Every structure is written in structure tokens, then in C-alpha cells.
Amino acid sequence: VFAKGRVALCGDAACVARPHVGMGVTKAADDALALAAHVAKAPLVEALKAYSDERVPKSRRAHEQARRLGSYIFDTDGDENRDGRSHAKIDTIMRETAAPVD
């Protein structure tokens, strides 16, 4: 929950993502833009609920991608990650770990 009643959180205060996706500043900016947009068009409590409803799923997706990327990066034997895939080719790494930007 990013907001409750008349209080809203954004950026790392709302939800800290793992560092593997490099989303800290981007997430804070996206949260701030979404918060401003919702507050500009609705009564405060309603706007904050809409803000939270929008940002929570996006934050969850970022966390899921960070977990996948973290698992991919930290291998068990130096040659393969925990899922058994090789780290040998950069194009394979990009194909398996890149995520679209919303």
C-alpha cells in the first residue's frame, strides 16, 4: 500500500526495490509523477487511493524482475546460475533478463 487516508509514500519510502534492476531514481520519479497526476484530478483521499492502486502492481513487477535478475547474476558454481543456464554469451543474458519499460 503506497497510501492510506491522507498520507502517501513514494520512492524508497513506499517500497525499496532490490538493486539488480537499477530502478531507484526512476521509481521515485514515476511515483512522484503519478502522485501529482492523481492529486490534480480528484479529492485527496480518492486521489491517494488511485495512486496506490496504480503504483503497487508496477512496484511488484519491478520486484519480480529484480528477483529474477538477482537469481541470474548470483550463480552457484561460477559457470551456471541456479536455473542451470550458462552465463557465457551476453546476447543470451540480455534476452533472458531484459524487461520492457512501462
Structural commentary:
With 102 residues, the protein is mostly helical. It has one domain. The protein has helices spanning 24-41, 44-73, 90-97, and strands spanning 3-4, 7-8. The chain is elongated. The two termini are 20 Å apart. The model has no long low-confidence stretch (mean pLDDT 81).
Short description:
The chain is mainly alpha-helical and 102 residues long.
Q: Give average pLDDT, whole number.
A: 81
Give the fraction of residues assigned to helices: 40-55%
Number of domains: 1
> pLDDT below 50 for ≥5 consecutive residues: which ranges?
none
Shape: elongated
**How many beta-strand segments?**
2
Query: How are strands sequenced across the largest beta sheet?
Result: 1-2
Radius of gyration: 17 Å
Largest sheet, in brief, is: 2 strands, antiparallel
Which secondary-structure class do the elements indicate? mainly alpha
Write the layout of secondary structure elements.
Blueprint: E1 3-4, E2 7-8, H1 24-41, H2 44-73, H3 90-97
Helix pairs in contact: 1-2
Q: Which key phrases capture this entry?
A:
55% helix; 3 helices; 102 residues; mainly alpha; single chain; two-stranded antiparallel ribbon
